[in-house]
Amino acid sequence: MNGNLGAIPAELAGKVVTPGDRRYHILRSTYTTVGRPAAVVLPESAHDVGAALRLAQDSGLRVAIRSGGHGLSGSGTNDGGLVIDLRALNRIDVIDRGSRLVRIEAGARWAQVAEALATHGLAISSGDHGNVGVGGIATGGGVGWLVRQYGLTIDHIRAVEVVLPNGTAVRADAETEPDLLWVMRGAGAGAGVAVAFEIEAMELRDVGYAQLLLPVDPAGETLRRWADVIAQSPRELSTAVLLSSQGSTAAAFITAVVASDNPSVVRDALEPLLGIADITVQQAHIVPYTELVPRFHLHANTGQMPSRTTNGLLTGLTPDAARALVTAASGPAPAFVQLRSLGGATHDPAPSSMAFTHRHQDILAIASAFSPNERSTLAAAWKPLAPHIDGAYVNFESARDEAAFARAYPGSAGTRVTDLWKHYDPEGVLRPRPPA
Ligand SMILES: Cc1cc2nc3c(=O)[nH]c(=O)nc-3n(C[C@H](O)[C@H](O)[C@H](O)COP(=O)(O)OP(=O)(O)OC[C@H]3O[C@@H](n4cnc5c(N)ncnc54)[C@H](O)[C@@H]3O)c2cc1C
Fold first, then answer.
1. Which residues does ligand 1 sit against, CB inside 6 Å?
2. In the chain, N or C: fewer CB atoms in 10 Å?
3. Which residues contact 210 (CB under 8 A, 6 or more apart)?
4. What is the count of structural domains for the chain?
5. Do 224 and 197 share a structural domain?
6. Are residues 372 and 261 both part of a single domain?
């Protein structure tokens, strides 16, 4: 599908950016991928999104949807097609302070959300970066700094305003469009364009925040001790571990966040982590949640991070899996490996309650490799880990093939996702597919 841009409808006048426009160079690309689209549309309403979808179809142009442009597969841009960039749809409103219900448009960034909600004493656990878009996280999952306390971002979505590929605007909630709500919470990218979400936020202002640096032994025993501590920890504690290569082994940089502003709760939650190895650097503070997804994260996306990422979920951490993680992060061509603690509230929803069905796993392992040899480096690093994987999270995946789909949506969930994508998008306008 690669046509020519047709006549621009009146409602999109001034909102379509083509290569001759001086705005084009900052709109063409995403974080990982330089794009050369025929046009970027900047809708200001759901109606505009519908018009943009119709323009693409009438012009025979392939569509890319973009909220924050941080997607790891580069699907937020394309070559020769039409990009619908939702950045102008970025309102953040508290609908009902009593029930903590907020309405957030898909083009907002999580730094903006954190800042806007902080003035109401509210927060949403989203991800670790303030520049990531609401639309990508809230249609895929959302493994944030408070994931064990809050669960995934999508666990708290109560309604989604969607523009279907045929241009129709629909509000999906549990009563009126339960199937659409089900698929938008975890596999939204193939069903429709989410323009806004109603999400239940949490009461939260300040959090405990600690950073630890420690050596990791080649057998991964340190990582196993970390996993054991997390398994016994209260939900308030969530951690992210970065493994950095130190020749034949690795060092771990742990960020721990405690969902409390009470120093003794924070201390009690953090203390067991101090026993897992000889900690070389440690610091702990109570900080506003906004400092974890700060405004200075906001930046333009110009394809500045050419890279490839994959991930897998782990149930427990066996000795073999722990050793494979250290191997992936060390040696002559290491991958950049991150671990996120799951469990706690991520296990609460019934697996079948939404398209993200992974509700028993304990760890999310993410591996990235950077240009120029990103494909081969990642493939080699991931090989020893692959046998230990128990499902995957769609948002930390660069591949757009059937194998990646099957890891994210295994078994009957995959069948239901495919059926619903066909139902809402019979022409396959939004269906994820390998880059042209
Ligand atoms: C630096 C960095 C840090 C990250 N940290 C985290 C983290 O801590 N936790 C976490 O869970 N994830 C994290 N991610 C992954 C992130 O969830 C995904 O990359 C997500 O897709 C980014 O959302 P976006 O709106 O910025 O992406 P975009 O590039 O705008 O979109 C990516 C794709 O998502 C789909 N999509 C986006 N918006 C919509 C919409 N409104 N309606 C329908 N489909 C849509 C489309 O298929 C689109 O092509 C991180 C990514 C990066 C690059």
1. 30-31, 64-72, 75-76, 86, 106, 127-129, 132-133, 135-137, 139-143, 188-189, 193-194, 395-396
2. C
3. 254, 255, 256, 257, 258, 266, 270, 273, 282, 283, 284, 285
4. 3
5. no
6. yes
